[in-house]
Specification:
Blueprint lengths: L12 H27 L2 E3 L6 E3 L3 H6 L3 H33 L5 H9 L6 H11 L6 H8 L10 H29 L3 H9 L4 H12 L1 H17 L2 H7 L11 H11 L3 H24 L8
Antiparallel strand pairs: 1-2
Length: about 290
């Protein structure tokens, strides 16, 4: 068996093709990450006039801080809730749209539109919907006997930010789930239907196992999204409150670094956050990928 090998007319052409991506990675990832790692070992005053090397003191101080430990648990609840809600809602919508024939393209277009909205705008929209004074949801809940107020209730605030962040990500998940559903051979589903399998059994025994590669990919993407890309949602809705109830790690990095001007602690938090995301990604590829059917 003869293998084909790509040959380039010039020696430097492959490097030229890779250069843009390498430059972007160096400028927007490697350089900021290295700066964060360096600054996490320093202690600076609020005006940046003096710098002292403190080694790992910033990290040790973080793990002795009750507010930071609370932020870790809040981030875990927020990431799990956002990932589960966005992926389950997207899968339900994808299954529903996939059964349509004439109106599939129209519904797909409508469901994809929210992904073009910035996270901060999504947060503002849901802030108005759940506003205790003018929002429609608190009005309906009040008629049902529940007094909604995310300004004073940490549980209400967490529900609000999870819904806002998940809604922003549903369109992205929906596109991949729909593409995965359309790639499944209909002959397999029809054969199972002929054998007497109902819709639920066909989905859980045939459709969902064949969707595991797509589900695994979206699981990794959604965890990263919840940990990094939800700053705008938090800032526009609760700003980490009330009483630190929604102060996730990425927002605490901003609050301590840009508001509190504690650059060393903020840099240490960003390094820990990056390490957590890398560790979660490695765990997902190491253990969860074993259950994926390619």
């Amino acid at each position: 068996m003869q293998t084909k090998r790509m040959t380039f007319p010039g020696r430097w052409l492959p490097y030229a093709l890779l250069a843009p991506q390498i430059i972007i990675t160096l400028i927007f990832f490697i350089w900021p990450a290295s700066q964060a790692l360096y600054q996490s070992l320093l202690r600076e005053d609020a005006f940046g006039l003096s710098t002292t090397f403190v080694g790992l003191a910033n990290f040790s101080r973080l793990f002795a801080d009750a507010y930071y430990l609370n932020s870790l648990s809040v981030t875990a609840v927020f990431a799990i809730g956002t990932t589960l809600l966005s992926m389950s809602a997207a899968l339900l919508l994808a299954v529903t749209v996939n059964r349509m024939l004439r109106s599939r393209d129209g519904y797909t277009t409508l469901l994809v539109w929210p992904y073009a909205i910035a996270p901060a705008i999504a947060g503002v929209l849901w802030w108005f919907i759940f506003n205790p004074s003018i929002g429609i949801v608190p009005y309906v809940l009040d008629m049902l006997g529940y007094r909604w107020n995310h300004r004073t209730s940490g549980a209400d605030a967490m529900i609000l930010v999870i819904i806002a962040a998940a809604w922003k990500q549903i369109a992205y998940n929906f596109l991949f789930f729909l593409a995965g559903l359309q790639s499944i051979p209909q002959s397999l589903i029809e054969a199972a239907a002929i054998d007497g399998a109902g819709p639920a059994k066909r989905f859980w025994t045939i459709v969902f196992p064949l969707l595991t590669p797509t589900t695994f990919f979206l699981l990794v993407v959604n965890v990263v999204y919840a940990m990094f890309d939800t700053f705008g949602v938090i800032h526009a809705t609760t700003q980490g409150g009330p009483a630190q109830a929604t102060n996730i790690l990425v927002y605490k990095v901003y609050a301590d670094g840009f508001v509190g001007m504690n650059i060393g602690s903020s840099a240490a938090q960003s390094v820990i956050l990056m390490a957590i995301v890398i560790a979660l990604t490695v765990i997902q590829f190491r253990f969860i990928e074993r259950r994926v059917n390619y």
